[in-house]
User: Fold this.
Amino acid sequence: MNNRNKLALAVAGALTVSVSVQAQSERLEEVNVTVSPLEKPADAVAAPVSVLSGDALRQEAAGTLGQTLNSELGVANASFGGGVGLPVIRGQSANRVKVLSDNLDVADASNTSSDHAASIEPLLAERIEILRGPAALRYGSGAIGGVVNVIDGRIPTRVPEEVEGAVEMRHDTANDQDAGVFRLDGGAGQVAWYLDGVYRENGNTQIPGLAILEHGEHEEEEHEEEEFNTDGYVGNTNARAKSGSAGLSWVTDSGFIGLSVNRLENNYGIPLGTHEHHHEHEQEHEDEALAGEDHVEEHGQEAVRIDLAQTRYDLKGEHRFDDNYWDKLSVRVGHNDYEHVELEEGEPGTRFTNEAWESRVELTHDAGGEWRGAYGLQLSDKDFAAVGDEAFIQPSNTRAAGLFAMKERTWGAWHLDLGGRVERVEVEPEIAASRDFNLLGVSSTLQYFLAEHQHLSFGATHAERAPVAEELFADGAHLAEARYIEGEEDLDKEKSFNLELGYHHHNEEASGWHAARVEANLFYNHVTDYIYAANTGEENLEEELPVYAYNNRDAVFYGAEASVRFPFAGGHYVELFGDSVRANFTSDLELHHDEEEGEHEHEHEEGEGRAYSRDVPRMPPLRVGLALGGSYDQWNWEWRTTKASAQERAGAFEEETEGYTRMDLTARYNLKVAGNDAVLFASARNLLDEEIRHSTSLLRDFAPEMGRSVEAGVRFIF
Assistant:
């Protein structure tokens, strides 16, 4: 271990032992978070919860969810060019991190493949709640690693006294992005309505240096990289998106019921060099326009785009009881009609669809200071299909039904949370035999309050996850990811045992050092039969693509998160933060796929020994950082520097990634315009113009993150 890593570990360790805090005061507002059905503020929830809202959310909001949350503690970004960015929580992602739209699954295709964007517009979010660690008790087996809950306010819960709204415009220099957002709330009597919309358009992502990282291991590979490489930008990363929502509610003294509809359209490009056809093509469309975007064809490399469209319908209701025991009944129903088409040379290629229903009923009670609790029923039905020449997975139907109960009680300085869930999941493909899974989850967390505003917590959770359709039944080339994927029909369910130790301190009413904001967490997660796509080191000769095969393998994840923010006189503060996760396999890899004669050959002969690597691939690196800031009457600012170490534990047949230092500067100025509030904001990101390649990204060798950028905008509030 080099001295730099030793120093970083020492800083992270010191933070863990001593103190920590959230990044900004706005990020953890004193509001009841919806990830707890018992209406608790984030500070009181036993599990590690972060809330990004208000001006802090507006400052961090970007075109993708992963990019928006990348600076949050314990959260990394799995990017796939400028159009895709998915959150990674403590090394867990895809089917282990549940992305929710107001407590219901987004039900898109983002978990199916790393090139599929989440059907969420962060610019329209009211707030984003991040639950780090297992949340499977309430949200099902897909939340075994964490939850990102995007609250949008589409269904009003109150009737405004007058029309309220906001309009925002922003521009980013690194990809020439222009974005506009509006939101309106109004109503009369017992009827409330809501409208919103967003439009954003950007060009290619600007970067320092070459897009494709040339490892130079093989002359043939190096020649191909040179053919598709671009200098100073990532080719074919321009995008255009628009979204609009409307909601209507009937509000009474005891509750409300409302409906909303949302339409989202997103057209974005897949970076050049990733989508390679190894079949012969006559190139007849070299300069054609592609779905309103410029079509690029360089040396036989097709400019492939994703054309995404989604219509979502939601119903939400709540009734508060006038009772000494029962508290509230909540009902949520959502229907999502999702589709995206992979466009090749301007022509539709593979079409992915997901038509999904989900419903949730929750009943809470409060026995007057003794046991409080919640009971819930969750049902879902998803019809997923991929049709076309590159359909690597057959159509399937997935049905799930879950029952859960959560209880809590306080004795003096002690607080106990208990919970349990039983779930049934059925996956029925079009051709192969269906699979059924019975899942069990239990959890227990004990908190000890050292004072009103600080507590220690210890939690233990057992959660189980059923394999999803693509893990079971995938079989084919996925050219957007440049790999051949093999599912395994006999996969076992994952069984996770998680331990969590935490310390939290937050008292904004205090002064001096007692006003420090503190959070520190240690976690250990043992996963039996962990499901992942193993890089086999072999090549499919027909498609000339590396073979990735889904397998079960025992694994252990462990790490720490810590941050501390000390306020000073005059509204100034200093903050230290750091997070780290390590993940190792504890059992040998046993490939299940059948190797037919002539079908596969070894591609990485010199890397043969890495096939037995016990490092889980695509883990985030150790990060530590420092922030300085100030908040005054009309304006505030923050300078933040994050140091990420090199990721030298890349996994079998995967390339290591170098470390980087990212420096950001943000500022906001509040003013009055015609008697209404307005905010001028600006952000200068990656000031050092570092080449940043995320170890969590499957596309890290083809598309680094954007270079130095300046984003500025104005928001009018009325």
In short: The first helix runs from residue 3 to 17.
